[in-house]
Amino acid sequence: MAEEQGIPPFDPEGAVYVYAAMADHIAARIQAGELRVNARLAGERALAEEYGVALGTARRAIEELRQRGLVVTLPAKGTFVAAPQPGGDGETEPV
């Protein structure tokens, strides 16, 4: 489904760290609308399995997305796609 929306396939063999490639891929899915605002991401273990990476790599990718302001993690709830900021400067804030 991702390729139909113009999202390139996940490539862990590229010239970047795997966690960064994974974060970039998830960010592209958010930008393409595949993952909508307030959508709950799969758990870290499920993401690790989906992307074929180690659990630590998936955790690092989620941390990278948090630093970019694309997702917010709520303890005991999960990780959710953040809503864009009202200022419209491209940054996002937690929902």
Automatic annotation (TrEMBL):
Q: Where is the HTH gntR-type domain?
A: 16-84
State the SMART domains in the record. Answer: HTH_GNTR
Q: Which InterPro entries match?
A: Bact_HTH_transcr_reg (IPR050679), Tscrpt_reg_HTH_GntR (IPR000524), WH-like_DNA-bd_sf (IPR036388), WH_DNA-bd_sf (IPR036390)
Would you say which domain of life the source belongs to?
Bacteria
Mind listing the UniProt keywords for this protein, alphabetically? Answer: DNA-binding, Transcription, Transcription regulation
Q: What is this protein called?
A: Winged helix-turn-helix domain-containing protein
